[in-house]
Amino acid sequence: MKLRIINGPNLNLLGTRQPEIYGGQTFKDYQELLEKEFPTVEFSYIQSNVEGELINAIQKAATEVDGIILNAAAYAHTSVGIGDAVAGIATPVIEVHISNTFARESFRHQSYISKYAKGIIVGFGLQSYKLAIASFISSD
Ligand code: CA2
What we know:
Elements: E1 2-7, H1 19-22, H2 27-37, E2 42-47, H3 51-62, E3 67-71, H4 80-87, E4 93-97, E5 119-122, H5 127-137
Parallel strand pairs: 1-2, 1-3, 3-4, 4-5
Helix pairs in contact: 3-4
The structure holds ligand CA2.
């Protein structure tokens, strides 16, 4: 199974600041852990701070992988374009967030992606990604 993790704006800063919200691990270290833990999965990753690049990445992933794990970060709450991109592809997308967005400011309670996602996983720290992967590879 091929899975692509698409991370949005500022997630390149993971492990550098705000560890109380986002944990202390860099995403690169976490990737290595995922690859060890899920040896049957072929992972690929992209992070961008640019909305249009994320839309291009979603469209491209739809032709290349079996499933997408998308943390659009702040764009989840603002981007009709990213929501439309997810709506416009047949490849399943699981929306993840590291923090519990519903326990934070009200502007984080809305997501333009959730309606079109296969499912959403929020608030489990970096484990949110693992839970999404487990869901993709589960045969139940
Ligand atoms: O909890 C999440 O995964 C979020 O998608 C993270 C976004 C935030 O805007 C969403 O509401 C929820 C922010 C990502 C910023 O990541 C940083 C990591 C370390 C240091 C600074 C920012």
